[in-house]
Amino acid sequence: MSAAGPLLRHRFETLADASAALAEAVAVRLRACIDARGRALLAVPGGTTPARFLTALGEHELPWEKVTVLPTDERFVAPSDPASNERMIRAAFAPLRDGRAGFVSFHNAGDDLAAAAASLDRLLAGLPALDVVVSGMGADGHIASLFPGDERGLSAGPGVHAIAASPPDLPPRLSLSPARLRGAEHVCLLISGQEKDEVLASAVELPGAFPVGLLLGGPQGLDVYWAKA
Ligand SMILES: O=C1O[C@H](COP(=O)(O)O)[C@@H](O)[C@H](O)[C@H]1O
């Protein structure tokens, strides 16, 4: 078993500062992947936190045509729905708006959730390991669409790439699996606010208690970008 990598906490006053610093770090990683392998595969979160990071990342000078982006998870809604993560990512990230970067859409997987997850699983199985994962985290400690209490999704084994999730009171979701998230070469977490800071601290104490604990203890470590507000 390989030793756990470091948990590095980068702390900022504002989300703008955290986003700019994370964008710089991710751009450096992507460039190194492109130099080494000629391409890079990047997963980015949805929700409300990452838009500034995505905009800042898109301003970096990179051969974006060698980068493929995918969401860490997607709400099972129409691509035009305001809740769609893809919709937000495309709006915030210039290399996707202008067609330079590639994108793996989770919206093409079909109308039935279980069948869509199976189809997405096959698609992801054909992709190499992710080079960089940027995850968000909800105040309940969920990452991607792996929610507390989703025992099946949280305990999915290494051969599983995509998860169908039906969190209570929310639209169904499609998510990258724990193995896909943890298998990335570099893993970052972008969060803001006191509440999420405390949830992360609890997860460090009790890794099994929160889905975000899945990102702790991997050999690559975890880089946390936290903003006070
Ligand atoms: O539903 C989701 O929530 C998390 C956290 O979102 P935020 O709005 O609290 O930043 C996000 O990382 C995930 O991708 C998204 O689908």
From TrEMBL:
**Keywords on record:** Hydrolase
Which top EC class is named for this enzyme in its record?
Answer: hydrolase
Signal sequence coordinates:
none
The catalysed reaction is:
6-phospho-D-glucono-1,5-lactone + H2O = 6-phospho-D-gluconate + H(+)
Return any one Pfam family short name: Glucosamine_iso
From which domain of life does this come?
Bacteria
Q: Name the Enzyme Commission number(s) assigned to this protein.
A: 3.1.1.31
Which pathway?
Answer: Carbohydrate degradation; pentose phosphate pathway; D-ribulose 5-phosphate from D-glucose 6-phosphate (oxidative stage): step 2/3
Question: TM segments?
Answer: none
**Domain Glucosamine/galactosamine-6-phosphate isomerase residues, every copy:** 16-214
Q: Which GO terms describe its molecular function?
A: 6-phosphogluconolactonase activity
* Alphabetized PANTHER family for the sequence: 6-PHOSPHOGLUCONOLACTONASE
| Job description of the protein | Hydrolysis of 6-phosphogluconolactone to 6-phosphogluconate.
Q: Which family does it belong to?
A: Belongs to the glucosamine/galactosamine-6-phosphate isomerase family. 6-phosphogluconolactonase subfamily.
Protein name stated in the entry: 6-phosphogluconolactonase
Q: Tell me the gene name.
A: pgl
